Amino acid sequence: MTELIELTPLQLLLSLALIAAAIALSAWFRLGLEGSLAIATGRTIVQLLVVGYLLTIVFSIRNPFLVLAVIAVMIGIATVVARNRISQKIPRLIPIVGGALSISTLLTLVYVNFAVIRPETWYEPQYVIPLAGILLGNAMSGAAIAGERFVSSLNNHRLDIETHLSLGATPNQAIASYRREAVGSGLIPTLNAMTVVGVVTLPGIITGQLLSGVSPINAAAYQMLIMFMLAFVTLAATVLVIQGIYSQAFNRAAQLLHH
Description:
Layout: H1 9-28, H2 34-61, H3 64-86, H4 93-117, H5 125-156, H6 158-166, H7 171-174, H8 176-196, H9 204-211, H10 216-249
Helix pairs in contact: 1-2, 3-4, 3-5, 4-5, 4-10, 5-8, 5-10, 8-10, 9-10
């Protein structure tokens, strides 16, 4: 197997030609995306360079507290992003989302680290940090989609929910179908990815391993592990977020609150 070719600064500059072509294409068709593409490109360069240098330090030091600190920062950022997409009006949504992402991600990470991969040290940065990033990214997206859908359903179907309540239904019964739809919507991207993985798409993890010279069978095995992890963490995060929002949606008299 050949080793992964290391990209030089010149090669990275040449890769920017793709962005230049995209900007030119946007200008040609007057799409108005030139500024967005330029800003996104600048952020991508800065963020990945910063992350690259920080991870180089973390990987070299191999300190468990430093690894946990990196994961804590990632959870904090993911929490704020997901909360902002769901709603900024629901009280105590930050701890709800943060708790859901933390529990689902750490539970999955601990199980995979100790029961499946079993590295020499539990805090091995090259395993723990990338896996945490993959898990958090998908849990955040699933929770944000599901939470936004659930809040929208509560607001748009207020009359239906209140009618069910007036007829004797419990809050849990009145919102059961909306909760089910919300959780399902949050899981759709993961289910779609699992359906076409290896047939239509080659995800980043398997592509990266193939480029680095790993055996295709071993790369496929790791991708299976990743997909199983993502299915669990996304479902767990969405269920916890929806349950947390539900707990804030009704008062003690079982009346639907405005959000």
